[in-house]
Specification:
Keywords: Secreted, Signal. It holds the Pfam family MRJP. InterPro entries: 6-blade_b-propeller_TolB-like (IPR011042), MRJP/yellow-related (IPR017996). The protein is mainly beta and about 375 residues long. The strands form seven sheets. A four-stranded antiparallel beta sheet has the order 1-26-25-24, with no helix packed on it. It has a four-stranded antiparallel beta sheet with strand order 2-3-4-5, with no helix packed on it. The protein has a four-stranded antiparallel beta sheet with strand order 6-7-8-9, with no helix packed on it. It has one domain (about 5-355): 6 Propeller (Neuraminidase), CATH 2.120.10. Helix content is about 10%, strand content about 35%. The longest helix has 14 residues, at about 15-25.
């Protein structure tokens, strides 16, 4: 990793990017598809048969959804009320405490990451951090993969991606990457504390430094991640960027030391404060810009263009590309939530999930 390379990435191509923005903007059509007058979500995923799911952020202690299925335009507790009914003091191993990311896996099941803490930056509860696999045909939990053995009291398991029978997960609290083998259940930490997993500046949204309930600047470490369509590259970043990459063979090699692994990390692209990402079958990465309310598109060579810019795209979080070539954009407004706004919510309802056609095929590793 070279500082001069990063500086060049930040400066290079500014004129070309601006020249393409108007054309991209003219072609973009944002269609509101889901709205809520009271709930805050930070993602969306869609099954092949059209079922829609979102993770939700509770705005009151011990009340509200954690995971919901959108039915007739309204979210319902999924897979049932019991999994969504956790309260302070109850067993954190068999209910959702703090769902942070979901996606339909390559097997067609719904997979859910629970950070195991009820609040942003909170200490994970015993048994709380977990990856939950849900059978969509039976609407029942198929299996729970505990993550506690690879976490600490500072951990915040954030997001995840598949690569065959491996699952890669980011730890945004204790900077690092988790590697889970679905066949034997082994769980390892890699790139633990590596500079590429550590936030280098405070988090921002709408050009404002975000503060926690104690008015302290927020740092979210290893967060967004993608796996290339061929499974060769793992791309990741802290929430404030930039994007790095490493060949997946170095993550999968349990015999490699972290010192050796770190030598193979490469700078990929100069991203900015980011809410969420997605990747298409051509290897293009889509990343939201939480300050300028736009979606950036990074080609496999790292070249940046602007896909769409719109004042309604406030903190677009985990995106999803459907089988029809549509990009789903949850305008989560997380930067306006009380957890990121000094303890006071400034969310402007309704919260909205948009969709736009991008003509791209999805990746289902």
């Amino acid at each position: 990793m070279r500082a001069t390379t990063l500086a060049l990435l930040l400066c290079f191509g500014t004129g070309a990017v601006q020249a393409q923005e108007a054309d991209a903007q003219a072609q973009a059509e944002l269609t509101p598809v889901l709205k809520s007058e009271s709930l805050v979500f930070n993602g969306v995923t869609r099954s092949k048969d059209g079922r829609l799911f979102s993770p939700f952020q509770r705005q009151q202690k011990d009340k509200g959804l954690e995971l919901g299925e959108w039915i007739d335009g309204k979210p319902q507790p999924y897979p049932d009320a019991a999994w969504n009914g956790w309260k302070t003091g109850e067993d954190a191993a068999r209910a959702f405490v703090g769902v942070n990311a979901i996606r339909i896996g390559p097997d067609g099941d719904l997979w859910v990451v629970d950070k195991g803490a009820a609040e942003l930056g909170g200490t994970p509860l015993p048994g709380g951090p977990k990856l939950v696999q849900i059978d969509l045909s039976a609407n029942k939990v198929r299996k729970v993969f505990p993550l506690e053995k690879a976490t600490t009291d500072k951990s915040f398991i954030d997001d995840f991606r598949f690569n065959g029978r491996k699952v890669y997960l980011t730890d945004a609290g204790q900077p690092g990457i988790l590697v889970l083998d679905l066949d034997d259940g082994t769980l390892r930490r890699v790139l633990d504390g590596h500079p590429s997993t550590v936030a280098q500046r405070p988090l921002t949204g709408e050009n404002k430094v975000l503060l926690d309930a104690k008015d302290k600047p927020i740092a979210i470490h290893a967060d967004q991640l993608e796996v290339s369509p061929d499974g060769k590259w793992f791309t990741y970043q802290a929430c404030t960027g930039p994007l790095y990459r490493i060949e997946t063979k170095w993550l999968d090699d349990a015999g490699a030391s972290d010192a050796e692994r770190g030598k193979h990390v490469e700078l990929f692209a100069a991203t900015v404060s980011t809410g969420g990402t997605a990747i298409d079958a051509e290897g293009n990465i889509y990343a939201s810009d939480t300050d300028n309310l736009r979606i950036l598109k990074f080609a496999p060579d790292g070249t940046q263009t602007t896909l769409v810019q719109d004042p309604r795209l406030v903190w677009v979080d985990a995106m999803w590309i459907d089988e029809e070539g549509g990009l789903w954009l949850p305008a989560a407004q997380m930067n306006r939530s009380k957890g990121m706004n000094g303890g006071t919510s400034k969310i402007a309802f309704p919260t909205t999930i948009f969709r736009m056609s991008i003509g791209a095929k999805p990746v289902r590793n």
